[in-house]
Fold this sequence. Notes:
- Chain A is an all-beta fold.
- Chain A has strands spanning about 5, 10-15, 20-25, 30-40, 40-50, 55, 65-70, 75-80, 90-95, 105, 110-114.
- Chain A is globular, with a radius of gyration of 13 Å.
- Chain B has strands at about 5, 10-15, 20-25, 30-35, 45-50, 50-55, 60-65, 70-75, 85-90, 95, 100-105.
- The interface of A and B includes residues 56, 89, 100 and 104 of A.
Amino acid sequence: xxxxxxxxxxxxxxxxxxxxxxxxxxxxxxxxxxxxxxxxxxxxxxxxxxxxxxxxxxxxxxxxxxxxxxxxxxxxxxxxxxxxxxxxxxxxxxxxxxxxxxxxxxxxxxxxxx
Amino acid sequence: xxxxxxxxxxxxxxxxxxxxxxxxxxxxxxxxxxxxxxxxxxxxxxxxxxxxxxxxxxxxxxxxxxxxxxxxxxxxxxxxxxxxxxxxxxxxxxxxxxxxxxxxxx
Lengths: 114, 106
């Protein structure tokens, strides 16, 4: 099992640029989560999908953030335009049957916006 | 939302010592889980423990769902146990605590 795969692992970008983070969940999992981790706010759930449908996006900070899951094996989190306060580690995670089972995290995408 | 309190926030141990980490929830939750974030940032699921007790090597966890808390026990700690330990529980969505930062010295 390859685990949850995220890319890129590290990204440094200039303020105003578009950032796209990618995630491939564990095969067979039907729920996918995007989390953001910062020192100030800890781990925050941004959005989660169940069977490719967004279920709860109340954690998405503002309209600059968008997430898609076109199929069961791929999701993107996009920030446009990026700002320095978006600097954080973004984790993708997956599980089977929503939050009701063990959740597995990817290694994270470390984003720095300068 | 649910408030998840973890204690202690920081813990420093000598190798070989035992420790207990606690997680309190402001409301009844489902699907309680413990995670370890190693110094390289990887988040590893340790236990899925909505109730009862589980053991995995030197680690064990107990959840008392009726009293809304869970405990993580680490016995004979090793330097590789260092990192941040998170608990999380769900009520619709999964809520995380702020973690316990554990440092184990040789």
